[in-house]
Every structure is written in structure tokens, then in C-alpha cells.
Design goal:
Arc Repressor Mutant, subunit A, 2 domains, two-stranded antiparallel sheet
Length: about 120
């Protein structure tokens, strides 16, 4: 799966949330200062070329929608993160976040509960 830039990822987050939208709808959801219409339109065309977004014609405009679901992208990104920085080990990745104090004991307990639920 191709990697997204920060700007592309922001647009995708909005599209995943909205399910489908035109450029104006996406800009409306963005934080200030809002980017120019042409900027967002260009990023969407890039996402389309990368295979992340498709569209249907509606009137004179386009309605865009994600071709890649958020879960698929999240799994690919997490896998790439683990592979590139943690020798492919999710255990090493979790250990890293524990050492950085980004994970509390409560967070770990919740993760373990989720794992146990999936095993059942």
C-alpha cells in the first residue's frame, strides 16, 4: 500500500468520517486556517491517482468517497511502523510506548482484555 503524506492523511480522515463528500464539504470539516479549495482539490486528485479515492459525477461537480477503508490503511501503517522501527515486533513497539510512558497500566489491561475477547 502506498504511503500518504500528512496532508493526504488529513483529507482521508475527513473522507472516512464523512463517507462521501465534495471538496467544499471536506474543507468545511477542516480546522482553521482552512486551505484553499484548489489545494484540497489537488490533494484529492493525488489520492485518486494513488488509488485511495474515487468519485461519481453529480451535476457539474464530483462526490468523492474512499476506496480504501480506514481499518485496512491502519493495519498497513501499523505493520509498516512495526517493521521499520521495531524489527517487525508489535511486542517491541508496545514496550517502546511503555518506556516512553505513553501507555498506562490501565491501557495495558484494556489491551489484554481486548486480546482475550478476540481469542474467545
Amino acid at each position: 500500500m502506498k504511503t500518504l503524506t500528512t496532508a493526504e492523511e488529513e483529507i482521508m480522515q475527513h473522507l472516512w468520517s464523512l463517507k462521501e463528500a465534495n471538496v467544499a464539504n471536506i474543507i468545511e470539516k477542516m480546522k482553521s486556517p482552512k486551505p484553499a479549495y484548489n489545494t484540497v482539490s489537488t490533494i484529492i486528485r493525488i489520492l485518486e491517482n494513488k488509488g485511495f479515492v474515487d468519485y461519481r459525477k453529480e451535476g457539474r461537480g464530483h462526490i468523492y468517497f474512499p476506496k480504501v477503508n480506514k481499518e485496512t490503511y491502519t493495519a498497513a501503517t501499523a505493520g509498516k511502523l512495526a517493521s521499520n522501527y521495531f524489527k517487525g515486533s508489535f511486542k517491541n513497539m508496545v514496550s517502546f510506548f511503555m518506556e516512553q510512558e505513553d501507555l498506562s497500566v490501565q491501557d495495558l489491561e484494556e489491551i489484554l482484555n481486548d486480546i482475550n475477547k478476540k481469542k474467545s
